[in-house]
User: Which sequence fits this backbone?
């Protein structure tokens, strides 16, 4: 039990971490949505062709995957707080460089840097919750996942009005300020850890033994059934979500005969399902672990039924089919919660988070392009829809494994400095 004198410092630290977690959540999606609405304005300044637009559409998930895996190695070399500061720093610099880009090559390079920072920051959120809020993992996961979902849609809404007022460069670069502010609490927390008494610092993070333990976990995670199940569940989820963000308006126009304005509004409704799922799923899973499997079933079968309905009777039931497709959001915050529920320690959470998101994003990165290829080859939506339906059995099988599994690093406990290492 903490002494009364220690309590204020603890509350102040957790308060900083809570603010920091929420600021990360609202900062690490705006670089994706802030650029695409402005392509016409950017093209008037620097040439942006269709190939470049395709690359910019693929870069986010590709970078999320690659740098999610990079984060596995960073953990052995840097404390969590420094990883967060570094990832946000890359995001800030990337967004600023995008705003001053003079040609398409520099715009692509700056975007890749920003997305790399986002990829590492994605990985750090679950472990940050595990370290600073071990008794409130469901609540904090719900809050940061909701922040991510909501702030994925704000930049596209304000990008054009801001560009008309101040120019596209200000519109694109202004989001760097939010990421810079998000880094401040983590700089303070990092500085505090550096000032800990040597004995306390050694107890919390013996760097040599921690590095050895992280390397052992990094090897073990590639052989873990739990880790692979989580990664494949996350991949199937990402296929649905990113596929719909890229193609839902076109699907609705072609299959359900809605007009473009209505298709845009329905895309907004689809995004709203993400906020609802983020608010409700992690607390449910935290309070009722037995509900993990039912949640997986809803997240897997709902979209499959919705896609089939969109194929068989799209016009009369378009809202019902869209709602069922929206159930696919359920497994996104569920996986983020399970990263902590299926790991013992902060180090384990970082490793599992990096592996899950790295592998999951890499496996799903090419799906929007594949949908376009299938449409071009067949001239119909049948093949792309069946591709999305095929995610259901993958999600169900991996969900069964995850629902029945325990912490992924349990077999590696002997290699860690301590099962209760604070990381």
Assistant:
């Amino acid at each position: 039990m903490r002494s009364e004198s220690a309590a204020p410092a603890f509350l102040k630290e957790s308060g900083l971490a809570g603010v920091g977690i929420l600021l990360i959540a609202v900062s690490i999606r705006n670089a994706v949505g802030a650029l695409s609405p402005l392509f016409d304005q950017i093209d008037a300044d620097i040439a942006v062709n269709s190939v470049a637009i395709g690359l910019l559409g693929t870069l986010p998930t590709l970078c999320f995957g690659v740098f999610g895996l990079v984060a596995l190695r960073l953990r052995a070399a840097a404390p969590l707080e420094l990883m967060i500061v570094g990832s946000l720093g890359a995001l800030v610099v990337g967004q600023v460089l995008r705003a001053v880009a003079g040609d398409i090559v520099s715009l692509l390079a700056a975007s890749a840097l920003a997305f790399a920072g986002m990829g590492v920051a994605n990985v750090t959120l679950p472990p940050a919750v595990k370290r600073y809020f071990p008794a409130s993992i469901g609540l904090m996961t719900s809050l940061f996942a909701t922040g991510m979902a909501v702030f994925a849609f704000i930049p596209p809404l304000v990008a054009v009005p801001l560009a008309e007022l101040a120019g596209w460069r200000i519109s694109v670069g202004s989001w760097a300020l939010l990421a810079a502010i998000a880094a401040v609490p983590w700089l303070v927390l990092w500085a505090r850890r550096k000032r800990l008494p040597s004995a306390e610092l050694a107890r919390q993070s013996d760097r040599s033994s921690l590095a050895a333990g992280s390397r052992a976990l990094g090897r073990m995670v590639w052989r873990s059934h739990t880790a692979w199940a989580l990664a494949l569940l996350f991949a199937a989820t990402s296929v649905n979500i990113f596929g719909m963000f890229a193609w839902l308006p076109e699907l609705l126009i072609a299959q359900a005969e809605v007009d473009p304005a209505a298709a845009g509004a329905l895309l907004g409704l689809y995004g709203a399902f993400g906020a609802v799922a983020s608010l409700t799923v992690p607390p449910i899973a935290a309070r009722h672990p037995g509900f993990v499997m039912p949640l997986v079933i809803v997240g897997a079968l709902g979209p499959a039924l919705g896609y089939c309905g969109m194929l068989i009777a799209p016009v009369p039931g378009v809202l019902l089919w869209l709602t069922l497709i929206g159930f696919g959001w359920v497994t996104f915050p569920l996986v983020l919660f399970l990263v902590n529920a299926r790991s013992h320690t902060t180090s384990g959470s970082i490793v599992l988070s990096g592996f899950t998101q790295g592998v999951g994003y890499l496996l799903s990165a090419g799906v929007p392009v594949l949908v376009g290829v299938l449409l071009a080859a067949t001239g119909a939506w049948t093949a792309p829809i069946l591709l999305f339906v095929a995610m259901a059995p993958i999600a169900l099988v991996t969900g069964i494994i995850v629902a029945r599994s325990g912490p992924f690093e349990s077999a590696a406990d002997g290699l860690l400095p301590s099962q209760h290492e604070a990381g």
